[in-house]
Amino acid sequence: MISMAIFPLWWSSFSEEFGRRSIYLISFALFLIFSVLSAISKNITMLIVFRMCAGGASASAHSTGAGSIADLFEVYERGKAMSLFYLGPLLGPLIAPIVGGALTQEIGWQATMWFLAIYGLVVLLMILFFLPETLQRKPEATLPTAETQGLSRMRTMDSAKVKTKNFAKSARHFLIDPLGVLLYLRFPPVLITVLLAAIAFGSLYVVNIAIQQKFSRDPYNFGQLSIGLMYIPSGLGYICGSLFGGRWIDKIMAREARKAGRYDENGKLIYLPEDRMRENAWVMTTIYPLALLMFGWVLRYGLHPVVPCLALFFFGISSMLVFSVATTMLTELIRKRSSSGVAINNFVRNTLSCIGAIVAAPWINAINVGWVFTILCICCLIISYVSIILLRKNATKWRKTMDEALAQ
């Protein structure tokens, strides 16, 4: 989780400079190598190091992938496209326990690493043969001609100074400058949008820990494979939210543009990022916290597994709407660096997810699962409602200020 939070900052920055396709190829080649090294690890230290490296390599897919979506789709159809794209990052953590549990139970833990290596190879080959470059490159500056370019010989000491200076500049460009995308968080629309998605995503990992902990004990006593199957309801919710939520968000955006009478000189609607957050925002940020509340208390009293499955399904639908709205808005708020906006989102949400995954089990043991999700529900409701109100009142003003600052 830590490496998947940090590495997208570099992948997104490099993809804006060198193109999406080259970053996909490099990162998935590294993922393949580190997955093989994980499979043949001789001790736990090797495994942890190589798994962190593999996670960092695979982290390019989300931020760079969202950038590709922004490259390919117009604003009015981007919500639907982003919802479908987001199925990958969400279904992965849900399918993985089922596949991983079955492989570990039947073969051993190394089988999961070999599975990832084979999967990485398949994806790498698909990118190599079927995925074109999506980023539109700017025309390169014309090089000076022979007549205008003066010829002179530089002294050895001066040459060494220039080389040292160029090396330091290159090192800063590749190692330090990508961290500059975090400065976008100083703009309120970006910060609030990221926060909305991050608290929902952090809640998801508390849910995942609760599933592992509570369904393995009385009164359920499920095996690893059965526990893995408990991730299916939220996965079905994500699929439903993806299929219908994206279209709903795009329709809301078009409706708001027509209502405001925003047309360009060609008669086409002018869309604004904040148009995506209307009644859908209240619906999605109300349902998923209440689903968390329901999930916690039905686990507390050990009700029939169908009941927590219902809560997980509604959590999946509503949180999917949050994720797709936030990701799409970020690509539109930071138009010239769309993948960087998603990388910031990844950084904050994965940081919160890491914290949630660490504190969830001791937190549940300290109070009880019902009260844990009650507190989580209240926090999500308050943060979400305040964020929506602030965006509804100030989004246009904040966005204009942000655009002016970025144009300088």
Going by helix content, strand content and strand pairing, the class is mainly alpha
How many distinct folded domains? 1
Task: Calculate the mean pLDDT score and round it.
Answer: 85
Structural Rg: 24 Å
- At CATH level 2, the architecture is Up-down Bundle
Strand composition percent:
under 5%
Question: Which CATH C-level class is it?
Answer: Mainly Alpha
Low-pLDDT ranges = 140-146
Stated plainly, the CATH topology is called: Growth Hormone, Chain: A
**What's the helix count?**
15
Largest sheet: none
| Proportion in helices | over 70%
Alpha-carbon distance between the termini? 35 Å
| Order of H and E elements | HHHHHHHHHHHHHHH
The CATH homologous superfamily corresponds to: MFS general substrate transporter like domains
Q: List how many beta strands DSSP finds.
A: 0
- Any idea what the shape is? globular
Structure explained in plain terms:
The chain contains 15 helices and no strands. The protein is an all-alpha fold and 408 residues long. The chain has one domain: MFS general substrate transporter like domains (Growth Hormone, Chain: A). Helix 9 (188-214) runs antiparallel to helix 13 and helix 9 packs antiparallel against helix 15. GO terms for molecular function: polyamine transmembrane transporter activity.
